[in-house]
Amino acid sequence: MHWIPASRSGRWWLVAGASSLLVSLLLWFIRFLILGQPFTGMHAFRFMVLAAILSFLFSFTGWLGARKLWLFSNLGMMIGLILMAMYSKGLTGWEDLVSFLVFLEAVAGGFIAGLIVEGVYFIRRMIKK
Predict the structure, then answer these.
(1) What dihedral angle (degrees, nearest 10) is formed by the CA atoms of 10, 70, 25, 48?
(2) How far apart are CA 58 and CA 13, in angstroms?
(3) Which of 10, 55, 57, 105 is the most exposed place for a label (fewest CB within 10 A)?
(4) DSSP 3-state assignment of 107?
């Protein structure tokens, strides 16, 4: 995990900004192109705010030193985006809500998995001492 920035590094904020931009673009792509919803500035702004909040929250945990939590959270977010795109196709009626809920569940699952991994590593360090 040498490619992940060190704790308290300023590179975390660059990672957060790049992640916010990427996740915003992917959310817009899924919402407005795959789902075929009409573009509205309000929805685009809300997805951008969601992406920024998640990206900066996860990068803040990495900045604090929980690099594995950052990694698993971002993996959960990417899996959630993939699942969101998959569930968006061929459904009728509730596809936008269902796909968004699947995205949020995957993000929560990645965050919880990251917490568990960080906890295991923390316990291992405490036992070694």
Answers:
(1) -80
(2) 10
(3) 10
(4) helix
